[in-house]
Fold this sequence. Notes:
Strand order of the largest sheet of chain B: 1-2-3-4
Largest sheet of chain A: 5 strands, antiparallel
Distance between the termini of chain A: 82 Å
WD repeats (chain B): 154-184
CATH topology of the domain at 1-107 and 288-331 in chain B: Thrombin, subunit H
Largest sheet of chain B: 4 strands, antiparallel
Strand order of the largest sheet of chain A: 5-6-7-8-9
Helix content of chain A: 55-70%
Largest interface: A-B, 25 and 31 residues
Low-confidence stretches of chain A: 1-20, 22-35, 263-268, 323-347
CATH class of the domain at 1-107 and 288-331 in chain B: Mainly Beta
Strand content of chain B: over 45%
Mean pLDDT of chain A: 81
Oligomer: heterodimer
Pfam families (chain B): WD40
InterPro entries (chain B): THOC6, WD40/YVTN_repeat-like_dom_sf, WD40_repeat_dom_sf, WD40_rpt
Shape of chain A: elongated
Number of helices of chain B: 2
Family (chain B): Belongs to the WD repeat THOC6 family.
Order of helices and strands of chain B: EEEHEEEEHEEEEEEEEEEEEEEEEEEEEE
Structural class of chain B: mainly beta
Radius of gyration of chain A: 55 Å
Mean pLDDT of chain B: 89
Keywords (chain B): WD repeat
Strand content of chain A: 5-15%
CATH architecture of the domain at 1-107 and 288-331 in chain B: Beta Barrel
Low-confidence stretches of chain B: none
Helix content of chain B: under 10%
Number of domains of chain A: 4
Amino acid sequence: MSKNTSSSSASTASSDAKKRRKEEASGASLLQSSSSSKSTADNNIYKTVIEYEETEALRRNPDEDLELVKKTCEEFRTLMGEIAEIKAKDKDPAAIAEKRTQAMLLFVILKKLNRLEKFRMKNSRDLLHKVKQQVDSQHLHLQNLLYEVLHLKKEVTKCLQFKSKDEEIDLVSVEEFYKEAPESISRPDQTKADSHQLKLARLEWELKQRKQLAAQCQELQAEKETVAAEIQKKKTHLESLAPMLKDILSATKPVQEYLGFTGSSRVVKQPEIAYLLPNPLYFLYVQASSYQEASDNKNMAVTISGDEEEAQRMRRTAVSSKQQYDHHEDSDSDNQEEKEGGKRHHRKKSKTDRQEERKKHLLVKHPLSVVVSITLNSGSSLQLAFFYLINLNIITVKVKVVLVEVDHSISASHLISGETILSELFPNDFGLESPNVANHYQLKQVGLNSYDSKEYGLAYFWAQKICGFDFASAQNDSKVEPTSAVSQENLPGILRAIKKRLAARITLYKQIQSLENRMIPEHPELSSMFAPKTHGSIDFWQTIVHADFITLPYTAHLLTAANVSESDSFFKTVISRGSSAKLHAAVVLKCDFPSSTPIFALQIETQGKQLNAKNDESIRDMEREVNHYCKEYCSTTNLRERILTAQMLQLLSCFDIYLEAAMTSQFPREKIFIQPVRGKTRSLPYKYMKIGNGIFTQH
Amino acid sequence: MVDRCFYNTTLSQTFSPCGNYLVAGNIYGQIAVFDLQNALEPSEPTSDQFSKPLFVFQSARDKSVSSLVSNSKFLIVGTVGEVSGYDWKSILSNKNPKVAWSLQIPTYRDSLEKSDVNSLAIVENSNDQTLVAGCGDKKVHLFNLRQGKHTQSFDGHDNYVHSVYASGSQVVSSGEDGKVCMWDWRQCAKTAVLEPHLNDQLARPHLGKWVGDACFNDDWLVCGGGPYLSLWHLRSMDLMNKFSNVEDSGIHVVRICDDRIMAGGTSPYFYHLSFSGEIFTQLETSSLTVYSAIFEEKPFHVTCLAGSSSHIDLCTNFKYRDQILTFEEPKS
Lengths: 699, 332
């Protein structure tokens, strides 16, 4: 500490000295401002003195100087002592002046030495600074180099880890390669020593072999195709034989009868008109009537309708021109023209007329149709008329619903209309697209994208199946022929499904009818499972369209999860309690009700707020109750179709609970529940339990 | 499908002791085990958008799994009326783990229903482990895990307990009655009570007075629920900050992690905040309400957010959601 202070005081002293010098200098310059040349000379002297002292400082040995300082100090001290002595004794002023002069001189020496020391210090500081800088820059350089090394190491590992595509290719083993590959590829002299060359050679050999195999594969495929074509040719030949045989059979019938032969019982029972049916409809007719007979089903009837004469004429021409039909488009239309030639006088037609002509021809129906009607115990029935489009080679169906005891005046009548009642009897089967892949191109050729389903009926997949067509497993390139086995296999299941669908739709329809009249459908068994008294009332229930449904703010979260599509039915209802609380519900009904249950999207509007499953956890819980837990109430088969009623009952009770548990200030608590909220989720007691007067709990 | 999975609500989550697995429980009483390795660093690209669990098993009695914690040996499951332990070994080796032990929550004659175990926490001291359970019977129950015995109950809430958090000798519990209570389990005494809903700055009467969660560190306590998310000085119990920039209608999860506060609830976002109220990040969540948020550093640096949806969001940094798990049962 003391050393520091002394040094600092020394430095301040020196700086003071400098200042003084400067002041003196400037004072001098002020005094002698008239003679500026002199002042510059003074400056020069000052500079030279400093320079001289600097060099002197470097030249002199600091250790000697130290000795000198010590010695000078000692002398100075003794001198001071002597002065003190003289002052005490005789006070001789001359002796004192003498001594003082000596002391002053010594002081000058001390000052000089001090100056020299300052220079030295500054010098060594500068030196230290310089060396430090050098070290720093070298350190930086070292860091750079280290970083570079690291980077290079990384690059090296990256290179080492590089994976080439060829490693994924399975190659034959090395031994096999040398055994099988020709010398030109294997080049053993090079490859034995160089593994890279070996790899290249093996890859080359692999490529060559693969090319060979591909060529072979193509060859075999071509061969297969020719064989298939041959088979097809023979098949068509055989098929054309079948109607001819049938003709012979029908022709010989009178002879048989005359001779008293009886064929198999089934053949005799069939009316003659059945023989005029085209193959697919014939299969359907036979299978459906035998199914009806075997199950002794009074609720089902199979009949044939249509123009018998036309059919007979058709049969005759069909047999003779079958070959032509199958071949060329032009020959087809020529044929058509010839047939209708009698009516038309000028054979030259415009292009559009020809196009129309082709269209008509392509969509030609067989004059006969098979009508299957299915009746429910309630008396409502479904009539299915099956048509065969000869040239498109598909079956179409026209559906008619006959209802008894049902009022038609509701807006949801599309639920039981013939066009849609059988939509998606099986997943994605709307009957709007032809199931025969070939038709797509045929229709395109005549400029049609699809055919008019109103005029020609709907081509459901299942309709093809019960008539013996199996397009799904058919190969694309061959014409699909109906088989009796396919029809036999699929018919019972499909008829059952249709019946179920009809029953489900009628029950649903009645429920919706009741809801449109703002009444919950009555069903004692279901009502007993829900709260007996609810306060909400239905303001309205109406049908809405897909576009309206998807733009409602509270349906967004359900759109993908419920797989909402335009073919579904949509409804909207509003339930209100008092004037201040309204519950909006949007409902989606899928075609395959009741296996897909109706889905509700909910929103409660109260006090200017819109609460829904996107911003209120309790509404989400309510949706869970209605869309999921309700299924549990309707798990038995006789209740499944009544789920809509159950959901509405549940909705009414949940609405009350929501208002009474979460908005206690406005709605006095009437329902009995133990805890208004429970658990981390703060869930409301939506679940009704029939204990005493009925209590509500959380799930 | 609008089925029960669509309306799933995941209530609780925990990590396995090794940190490689995430276990989550939902309201249907299902417990799903997820492989984090597979979800975060899939070895082969899968066509599935969301990673499914390794397997799902049903908790005992099919009651909702409100809370989960784990120690080095057991997965501890809080359902309704009881806490049960599953051996981790049996969970990781077997698709039908068996209950190793179970503890009943003491019931009283006048209670009609068994009480929910809404929240669990573990306190370690010397060689004992104490399990703290915040329950539906308005009490906080303490169990000694080594002896498997109920040791004490804290009685002070007027409604059910939403959550408990424990650290050192202190336990904080927050309840439906709007109280946040601090307890010292060594002294068996209540040390402080907070009622945020009585503070005019914090109260949100339309949401209620309940407090969904509370958490503390050496100096600070954070809590939120019906009232705003707020920061309190632990020793003086003075309100320090109100986080009014958090958009929520109810806070359900609050955690303190070093110098940040994590908070979630009925909100489109999960928040990371500084103590002074700055929002570091707001993560979009799949759930309408986040009921559980847990994080670990090793072996994966991951935060898992779960709540009212079939999805669980994973964040490997604090910036964005990068993986989503789904609670859907894998088809076997």
